[in-house]
Amino acid sequence: MASDASRRLARLTVDLNALRTNWRIFADLAGDGEAAAVVKADAYGCGAHEVATALAHEGARTFFVATLAEGLDLRATLGDAHAIYVLNGPSTADVGAFGPARLFPVLNSLDQIGLWKAAGAPVAAGLHIDTGMNRLGLNIAEAGAARDALARIDVPLVMSHLACASAPEHPLNQRQRERFAEAAQLFPGARKSLAATAGALGGADFRFGLLRPGIGLYGDNGLDTPAPTLAVVATLDAPILQVRDIPAGATVGYGASFATPHQMRTATIALGYADGYLRAASGRGYGVLAGARCPVLGRVSMDLITLDVTAAGGAAEVGARVEMLGPNVPLRDVAAASGTASYEVLTNLTRVSRRYGGAVA
Ligand SMILES: *Cc1c(COP(=O)(O)O)cnc(C)c1O
């Protein structure tokens, strides 16, 4: 039951059935291999506890997070049965925490390998080889030294990450694939993983043994093109706090940046940049109410947005909820209006209340 207080808040509804449908797509693409689930950043804003629980029920066995803290939380959620890799790897300060929680660090440098060995390598670890992104991972030239250093260490996974997977034709993809295939030969006993969402959808060449989809689970294909589409997982709506009819020539919001060209009905909703709806969507975003498109008028403020609800007629009343992201307002449109990527749209949604649709088991 929604309390009166929660009725006046923006709300993110996460469809766990859609989430599972999307994970299944990657599991099918993996064929004889496996689809992991990337649940870093609180499962891209969708709630790591609920997301990981649902995907574990669906059959996911391997999970990736970015940080140790995320790994510890996820271990508490999942119990002991699943593999959890921590992408950022260990530091001097925290290396001791991996073993007791059975978290597998991804080792990204010879220094991290040294640290892991000095700590007694209490559990398995992954190895990340940088093949062209120049972000995390060992250089190709260090791979031989890594093999020697890891000779008696349990390393069931060797991975790399594509810089340009969103554009499958980009020549760097093939170069990275070749470098990865060659370097991975040094670790014949390890499973290989190169593809995140876009790499997995972009072509069989990139799939290897373990897929690491993140954004694809949450509904965006990660590619520069809209196809293929995935199931919509996240829906954001916000209640109308006030409706007003304003004449032509009036202005709306901070900076008076929007002036009404004609008389308009406006609605002010309980959503703003402090909730994670980016201010960059000022004058560009839109919502949908009763099938009508309702443009954002003027600036997004901290807690409020004013929409043109003229087209929504009588549906525009206090308490009605306007969809600001979801089946009628695609994630990509919100990202484009905000000058950013779907990833940032989702991970920003912090102050909103969350609820879940679709059965967990
Ligand atoms: C975030 C991340 C992923 C998931 O990427 P998506 O594009 O969201 O599928 C996979 N691997 C690594 C190393 C990552 O950092």
Percentage of β-strand residues: 15-25%
Shape: elongated
Average pLDDT, to the nearest integer? 96
Reported for the largest beta sheet, the result is:
8 strands, mixed
CATH class of the largest domain: Alpha Beta
Q: Helix-strand pattern, N to C?
A: HEHEEHHEHEEHEHEHEHEEEEEEEEEHHE
Helix content: 25-40%
Distance between the termini: 21 Å
- Secondary structure tally: strands: 19
Total count of helical runs of at least 4 residues = 11
Return the structural class.
Answer: alpha/beta
CA-based gyration radius = 23 Å
Low-confidence stretches: none
Q: What is the annotated CATH architecture of the largest domain?
A: Alpha-Beta Barrel
Q: Which fold name fills CATH's third level, the topology of the largest domain?
A: TIM Barrel
Tell me the CATH superfamily of the largest domain: Alanine racemase
Number of domains: 2
User: What hetero molecules are in the model?
Assistant: pyridoxal-5'-phosphate
Explain how this protein is built.
With 361 residues, the chain is an alpha/beta fold. It has 2 domains: 15-218, TIM Barrel; 234-357, Lyase, Ornithine Decarboxylase, Chain A, domain 1. The protein has 11 helices and 19 strands. The chain has helices at residues 4-7, 16-30, 40-44, 48-58, 68-78, 110-118, 143-149, 171-184, 197-202, 331-337, 342-347; strands spanning 11-15, 34-35, 37-38, 62-65, 83-86, 104-107, 126-128, 157-159, 191-193, 210-211, 234-246, 251-252, 258-259, 264-269, 286-289, 292-297, 305-308, 321-325, 353-357. The strands form 4 sheets. Strands 1, 11, 14, 15, 16, 17, 18 and 19 form an 8-stranded mixed sheet that branches. A 7-stranded parallel sheet has the order 3-4-5-6-7-8-9. α4 crosses α5. The longest helix has 15 residues, at 16-30. The model has no long low-confidence stretch (mean pLDDT 96). The structure holds pyridoxal-5'-phosphate. Residues 38, 40, 87, 161, 196-198, 212-216, 222 line the site of pyridoxal-5'-phosphate (PLP).
